[in-house]
């Protein structure tokens, strides 16, 4: 039995513990920023796009995302680049090995980091298969911050995430076939499309003239 002198303190602690449950389970509070993946340009850096043939419910089933696109960007004389962009309030579904779903069956290894230069400095994680046939690069955007280490990011945001309305995270994932010879990642077709897609997405919120 709890002493009456501790009753108020215990009641306050229990009430605080219920805050995340009320916010996320009962109220389902979410912050909407007005951005949408569908507004990413269908033509990027001289590449024209066509949608892939994913089932319309696939993004929600795999990434808990109601806002996602997957397109193949093509340009004469260049390798095709497949671009997938998804937004989700379930951050772990986006950052926990997205290649397992998006490049299923490919033995992708040698994870490393690079920086896409340009109007923004964008940290990008990239992978390739040991046979040298495919290159993948992806990055995560949360608010106006690119997330280099999603696990550390989630830990640092844990108190905020427990007590505030959820904000979406955005995954940008691009892949292409690797051709003969070496090419700097920052100058590759994949980097060009990925950079242009991110700039097109972010420009939705930029004041006119900034991007």
Keywords:
211 residues; 2 domains; 7 helices; single chain; alpha+beta; 9 strands; nine-stranded antiparallel beta sheet
Q: Please work out how many helical segments DSSP would assign.
A: 7
The CA-CA distance between the termini, in Å, is: 63 Å
Tell me the β content.
25-35%
The main pleated sheet reads as: 9 strands, antiparallel
Number of domains: 2
Number of strands: 9
What order do the helices and strands follow?
A: HEEHEEHHEEEEHHEH
* Class inferred from helices and paired strands: alpha+beta
* Uncertain residue ranges: 13-27
Write a compact overview of the structure shown.
This protein is of the alpha+beta class.
Please describe the topology of this protein.
Layout: H1 7-26, E1 43-44, E2 47-51, H2 58-63, E3 67-74, E4 81-88, H3 91-95, H4 99-102, E5 108-116, E6 122-129, E7 134-142, E8 145-147, H5 150-156, H6 158-163, E9 169-177, H7 189-202
Antiparallel strand pairs: 1-2, 2-3, 3-4, 4-9, 5-6, 6-7, 7-8, 7-9
Task: Write up what this structure looks like.
The protein has 211 residues and is of the alpha+beta class. It has 2 domains: 1-30; 33-205, no CATH class. The chain contains 7 helices and 9 strands; from the N terminus they run H-E-E-H-E-E-H-H-E-E-E-E-H-H-E-H. Strands 1, 2, 3, 4, 5, 6, 7, 8 and 9 form a 9-stranded antiparallel sheet that branches. Strand 5 (108-116) and strand 6 form a beta hairpin. The longest helix is centred in the N-terminal third of the chain and has 20 residues, at 7-26. The protein starts with 6 loop residues before the first helix and ends in a 9-residue tail after the last helix. The model is unreliable at 13-27 (pLDDT under 50).
């Amino acid at each position: 039995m709890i002493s009456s002198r501790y009753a108020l303190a215990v009641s306050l602690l229990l009430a605080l513990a219920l805050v995340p449950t009320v916010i996320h389970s009962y109220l389902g509070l979410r912050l909407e920023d007005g951005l949408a993946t569908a507004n990413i340009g269908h033509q990027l850096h001289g590449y024209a796009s066509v949608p892939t043939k994913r089932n319309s419910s696939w993004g929600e089933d795999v990434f808990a995302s109601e806002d996602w696109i997957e397109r193949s960007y093509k340009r004469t004389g260049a390798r095709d680049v497949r671009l997938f962009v998804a937004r989700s309030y379930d951050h772990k579904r986006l950052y926990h090995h997205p290649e397992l779903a998006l490049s299923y069956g490919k033995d992708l290894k040698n994870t490393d980091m690079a920086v896409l230069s340009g109007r923004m400095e964008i940290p990008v994680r990239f992978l390739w298969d040991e046979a040298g046939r495919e290159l993948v690069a992806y990055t995560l955007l949360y608010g106006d911050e690119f997330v280099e280490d999603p696990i550390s990011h989630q830990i640092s945001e844990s108190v905020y995430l427990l007590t505030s309305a959820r904000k979406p995270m955005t995954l940008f994932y691009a892949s292409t076939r690797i051709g003969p010879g070496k090419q700097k990642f920052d100058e590759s077709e994949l980097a060009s499309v990925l950079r242009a897609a991110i700039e097109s997405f972010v420009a939705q919120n930029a004041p006119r003239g900034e991007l």
